[in-house]
Amino acid sequence: MDTLKLIALDEEDLRILSAHLQDSVLKVGDIEYLVAEKKLVLGVNRFVWELAADGKRRRSFERRRTALLFDRVGNVKVTGIDRRHSNDILALLAINFIVEDAPSGIVELTFAAGKALRLEVEAIEAQLTDLGPAWETSFKPEHEA
After folding, report:
1. Residue 137 falls inside a structural domain
2. pLDDT tens-digit profile of 131-142?
3. Percentage helix, strand, coil, to 5, in the chain?
4. Is 141 part of any domain?
5. Quick one: 81 exposed, middle or buried, by C-beta within 10 A (0-12, 13-18, 19+)?
6. 117, 119, 84, 114: which is closest to 100 by C-alpha?
7. What's the predicted TM-score (pTM) here?
8. Using one digit for the tens of pLDDT, what is the confidence trace for 9-44?
9. By the 8 A CB rule, do 85 and 46 touch?
10. Which structural domain range is residue 99 located in?
């Protein structure tokens, strides 16, 4: 499986990133806001949905270490995440965009247990880049319908 590299420049692109990143897990310490550069960087362990959704019956699945970068970030608001607990685990559920004064708005990263990051952005500008080889996992995330 080739590594994945995606760029999001609008809401539709962001929905595609969200689908690929659903059920990613990360530590609180893997989130870095670079204020002077107006960037937010996250290192996540991405569940490889594109392989799991190929219709083949599997006993094992894959995760990959992935970097997620948001540019043009003016401010970050946090709900339920304590930076002092850098080893706490977050499970990403979705990424959404709320238009305020187009093209600016809020990119919202929603995590399990009511946790969230809200990024005030000038415009949607995000990148997803797989960083290395995959590793096997027997667990496939399941969601209630």
Report:
1. no
2. 988 999 988 898
3. 15, 50, 35
4. no
5. middle
6. 119
7. 0.92
8. 999 999 999 999 999 999 999 999 999 999 999 999
9. no
10. 5-54+64-132
